[in-house]
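Readers outside the structure-tokenisation community will struggle with the description of the input data as it stands. Showing the layout once, in full, would remove most of the difficulty. For illustration, here is how one protein appears when written out as sequence plus structure tokens:
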Amino acid sequence: MALILFLHGASSSGKSTLARQLRLRANRPFLHLSIDHLRDSGAWTPADYPNWRAARPGFFSGFHRALAAFADTQNDLIVEHILDTPGWQADLQSLFAPHDLLFIGLHTPLETLRLREHDRADRPQGSAEADYHKIHRGLTYDLSLDGSASPEDNAGRILARLQAPLPRSAFFAAPKNLPD
């Protein structure tokens, strides 16, 4: 059984920075996986998918199954994701069911998201704000963190939570309201 640390938050909320800090401080190896890694490596580019709307369901279905395959072969994971599409959580619930999972909500103030998105310049302006208004709706987390807090402090809170056995994750409960 693998351990999955599922980081969920708006674009520019600090998921990648937190994941890097977790990997530095954890006493076990974690694979850190996200769609951004595929894009940044050149494995795919937006130009590869001229009809992204049509390709998106298959792309994410493959990504979800790849995550599960890593976990199924006993790799502990840090997963960065944004559950912005109806059905994704249910799909991942099924795929991740055999594993321990800590569902972590990264809540970052809107002004911080705007500043980070502007400074990054690798995201469509306004995507973080759009996420901010809907991304956490209806979800219950095992651990909620302030994305404007230091990554070191947030990593420490996660690692402290891992010192005791994990109960069944809130991730596996049905969301109360799906994001629009």
Remarks:
- The beta strands are 3-9, 31-33, 77-81, 100-107, 143-146.
- The longest strand covers residues 100-107.
- Helices lie at 15-25, 35-41, 52-72, 88-96, 110-120, 127-132, 151-161.
- The chain has a mean pLDDT of 91.
